[in-house]
Amino acid sequence: MTAPVSADLIDPMNDVRKATDELVADAVKQNDDHNAYLEKIKKISSMKGDQLAIALLFSIMANYPSQANPDATMTGFYEDKINLTGDGMTVMGKMTSFVNGMENQFSNTSGTKQDLKDFAHEADAFLAATDPDHGFLAKSKAIPPATLKAARDEVQKMRNSIYVAGVDPDSAKGRILSTDTSDSSCHSFAELYTKAQSTDDPSGRDTMKTFTQSFDSVSSIFDGQNSSLKLSLDQDTNDAKNLMSSMTTIGQSFFKPSDTAVNNSRP
């Protein structure tokens, strides 16, 4: 069950959406740079001799920017990739902050019915954004599909434990948490904490366990993705530095006259 996001509330995923939009824009730029690079290679295919050698050095390997696509170079490729990885880390940071905010709501032992409703709304926004067919996060490829699905599944478990009157099409039957005060469910996390302390009804403890385990799982999933992105960023940065160093050495050896030639040119 994926409940709809209520239209009368501000989308709490706005920060995540903005970060995702920036990543998508940089992905478009990377593709444009790559296509411009391929066009550059086509143009030098008819060159010969020294002209070809120089064109190969600057157009294929080193930085020979054009005004239209200054990053359509080998080093520019690394810059684009580093930017995209950084964008991915920003998205993950926004996602982590978002889920941490949900966990803080759950941990509030003085929470109200409205807090419960707000929590459900944030869960709905998360589920809408990560929907594999229509969600902006899923379509952006900002987060690997398997990672996104794993986090989504955990949030879905928590959302399935809550009934929001007037939003959810199903009844509150079988759910421990509900915003409908006419039923016998818990109407806030505060009430859930109280129920969980009961020794004769394990339903409260089971629900508490569901939320606690799901938040732990999401945290572990996001930590793993952040670590992966950090490793990728470090590797790309080192590779870019090595490429620049290599191109500097090649350029110097290509254009620097040999010691013999210099000596022979002296009177």
Could you please describe the fold and organization of this structure?
- The chain has one domain.
- A two-stranded parallel ribbon has the order 1-2.
- It contains nine helices and two strands, in the order ααααααββααα.
- Helix 3 runs antiparallel to helix 8 (203-255) and helix 7 (189-196) crosses helix 8 (203-255).
- Helix content is 69%, strand content 1%.
- Mean pLDDT is 83; it is low at 1-9.
- The chain has helices at 14-43, 49-61, 74-107, 113-129, 136-140, 145-160, 189-196, 203-255, 259-265; strands at residues 162-163, 177-178.
- It is elongated, with a radius of gyration of 28 Å.
- It starts with 13 loop residues before the first helix and ends with a helix.
Write the layout of secondary structure elements.
Elements: H1 14-43, H2 49-61, H3 74-107, H4 113-129, H5 136-140, H6 145-160, E1 162-163, E2 177-178, H7 189-196, H8 203-255, H9 259-265
Parallel strand pairs: 1-2
Helix pairs in contact: 1-3, 3-8, 4-6, 6-8, 7-8
Please give a handful of descriptors for the protein shown.
single chain; 267 residues; mainly alpha; two-stranded parallel sheet; 9 helices; 2 strands; elongated; disordered N terminus
Please sum up the structure shown.
This protein has 267 residues and is an all-alpha fold. It has helices at 14-43, 49-61, 74-107, 113-129, 136-140, 145-160, 189-196, 203-255, 259-265, and strands spanning 162-163, 177-178. The chain starts with 13 loop residues before the first helix and ends with a helix.
